[in-house]
Write a structure and sequence with these properties.
The complex is a heterodimer of chains A (272) and B (260). Chain A is an alpha+beta fold. Chain A has a domain of 160 residues: Ku70, Chain: A, Domain 2 (Beta Barrel), CATH 2.40.290. Chain A contains 8 helices and 13 strands. In chain A, strands 1-2-9-12-11-10-8 form a 7-stranded mixed β-barrel. In chain A, a hairpin with a 2-residue loop joins strand 10 and strand 11. Chain A is extended. The N terminus and C terminus of chain A are likely disordered. By secondary structure, chain B is α+β, with helices and mostly antiparallel strands. Among the domains of chain B are: 107 residues, Ku70, Chain: A, Domain 2 (Beta Barrel); 65 residues, no CATH class. In chain B, the strands form 4 sheets. Chain B has a 7-stranded mixed barrel. In chain B, a hairpin with a 4-residue loop joins strand 7 and strand 8. Chain B is extended. The N and C termini of chain B lie far apart (60 Å). The chains are: A alpha+beta (272), B alpha+beta (260). At the A-B interface, strand 1, strand 3, strand 4, strand 6 and strand 7 of A face strand 2, strand 3, strand 4, strand 5 and strand 6 of B.
């Protein structure tokens, strides 16, 4: 079990470590519950050569090398405080392999505006019993565990939720990033004319449904884009061989579903 | 200071229309740095250049490439991409109303607060009707050349729209297999239950702060004054590998009486 920690994160996992509550420790790997957004396009020239991003000094129009560029925070118009990579690194929270649950709250109490990104937590190593135990209890009691943890050099606030026997971590936005209706200048709730309320209630009733159909939420633009690409491929119009140099910059896409399926099947019949 | 609306639309609920203004409910506080030319501290300009010649390609000459799995690049022009844009509209169409738990958090992307836009009666009536219902609306609208889906519900007694991710982005729970194993020990289950109960609390978001952001701001302020700041780091927590012992120990610490 400790091997994973020595060798870093499991393949494709954003983070590997342990959920702890009290003195109990549960080894988990964390995977995004979201796939990357739509079909990615690259910037190319009219012959299809992938372009490169370069920085220029606007004064002498000279392309700049990485070491000639510094980072500055503008404290007032045109006045910058320089901050180096080393200085920022020193401020990063210390790498930690723990999601330490500080308390359990009613999951229904968590305001939806806080939710930022969802991750699945999968049991790591050969022991799944504590994982199943926590998932069962949280699901039965409708509780969510609250914790902070360090992932990718940042401290995140998370709610750990259980659904259908699977633990999920939802990163939460910090309170000072949420605008209240009062900050926004929205009017206070007021009594509305009864006839108008009745009219809206009737309209709501007319639209009443029971099940959420995820088919409704397909990305129409992505489908149109893929159709356009297909038409061009069939007509062999504006299609070029990808230059070999383009390979290196393209990010490796990991099929999350494959990893998740494999992990759960492997874990499936294993003795706890 | 009142926030500025980012968009105006009209909610269409069957035969009722409610004009609203949208306000971002999230205000990112991420600290943004500018990239500067070190020599003269001038903000740099970013350009796209040809990979071989290094020549700058002007914005109007930039095309878009879609890479296929078999190593081809399909070239698309700005006009072709623009032709995929949906027709713009002010309508926020409500497709249906669903039980509140039907769409879970994994779909949520970004919340927008709604304010009235010229018809306060309709706005307050919408809030009142939503408040007395245990359902939420599934909405669809076109904003800034993009199609959005969202949930229409109440937040702090005001209507909000929370945009939803596309079906392609959300991994379905049905696709996963639930971790299985031997039946759980009743005693351990009971102890874990007690432990969770002992650690029960109410959620107070104000208790948590982005300490990294605060440290970076602290560094900037200190540097502006010509100072250097110190860091503090926490040590990792001790845990034990034996589940039963761990539960027992935790319960003792939580001040609970152990069951025989």
């Amino acid at each position: 079990m400790a091997e994973k920690e020595r060798h870093g994160d499991a393949a494709g996992a954003f983070w590997s470590g342990a959920i702890t509550f009290g003195l109990v420790s549960i080894q988990v790997d964390l995977y995004s519950a979201h796939r990357p957004k739509s079909a990615a396009l690259r910037m190319v020239d009219r012959h299809g050569a992938p372009l490169r991003r370069r920085y220029f000094c606007p004064r002498d129009h000279k392309p700049l090398e990485r070491e000639e560029i510094v980072r500055g925070y503008e404290i007032e118009e045109g006045r910058f405080i320089l901050v180096s990579d080393e200085e920022l690194e020193a401020l990063e929270p210390k790498k930690s392999r723990e999601i330490d649950l500080r308390c359990f709250v009613d999951a229904a109490e968590l305001d939806p505006v806080y939710f930022e990104h969802a991750y699945f937590l999968l049991p790591a190593g050969s022991v799944s019993k504590p994982y199943r135990l926590l998932a069962r209890i949280m699901e039965n009691s409708g509780k969510a565990g609250i914790a902070t943890f360090v992932m990718r050099e940042r401290e995140h606030l998370v709610a750990i939720l259980a659904e259908k026997g699977i633990l999920r971590a939802e990163t939460l936005r910090f309170a000072d990033e949420i605008r209240s209706p009062e900050d926004t200048g929205l009017p206070s709730p007021e009594k509305a004319p009864a006839a108008k309320v009745k009219q809206i209630r009737r309209a709501m009733k007319k639209l009443q449904g029971r099940e959420f159909d995820r088919e409704l939420l397909h990305d129409r633009r992505r489908r149109l884009l893929l159709e356009l690409v297909d038409r061009k491929l069939k007509a062999a119009e504006d299609v070029v061989e990808k230059p070999p140099a383009a390979e290196a910059e393209g990010a490796e896409i990991i099929d999350l579903m494959e990893i998740i399926k494999k992990r759960f099947t492997e874990r499936g019949g294993a003795p706890a | 200071m009142a926030a500025r609306a980012i968009w105006r639309g009209i909610i269409l609920l069957a035969d009722v229309s409610v004009p609203v203004k949208l306000y971002g409910a999230v205000e990112e506080k991420t600290i943004h740095f500018r990239l500067l030319h070190g020599k003269d501290q001038t903000p740099v300009r970013q350009e796209m250049v040809h990979p071989e010649t290094g020549e700058v390609v002007p914005a109007e000459a930039i095309h878009h490439g879609y890479e296929t799995e078999d190593g081809k690049m399909v070239i698309l022009t700005n006009e072709e991409l623009k032709s995929l844009d949906p027709e713009s509209s002010r309508q926020i169409e409500i497709l249906r109303f669903l039980p509140r738990s039907a769409i879970d958090h994994r779909w949520y992307e970004r919340p927008y607060l709604l304010g009235p836009d010229g018809d306060p009666e309709a706005y307050h009536a919408l809030a009142e009707a939503l408040g007395s219902s245990d359902t939420e609306g599934l909405a669809r609208w076109i904003m800034r050349n993009r199609e959005y889906h969202g949930v229409l519900r109440l937040l702090g007694h005001r209507p909000v729209l929370i945009t939803l991710r596309h079906a392609e982005e959300v991994v379905s729970l049905e696709e996963l297999n639930i971790p299985a194993g031997r039946e759980m020990d009743k005693k351990e289950l009971a102890m874990a239950e007690q432990l969770v109960a002992a650690m029960a609390d109410t959620f107070d978001p104000a208790r948590y702060r982005d300490e990294y952001r605060e440290r970076v701001m602290g560094l900037i302020t200190a540097k502006a004054k010509g100072k250097i700041i110190e860091l503090h780091r926490a040590a990792p927590k001790k845990t034990t590998r034996n589940l039963k012992k761990a539960l027992e120990g935790s319960l003792r610490t939580a001040g609970m009486r152990k069951h025989g």
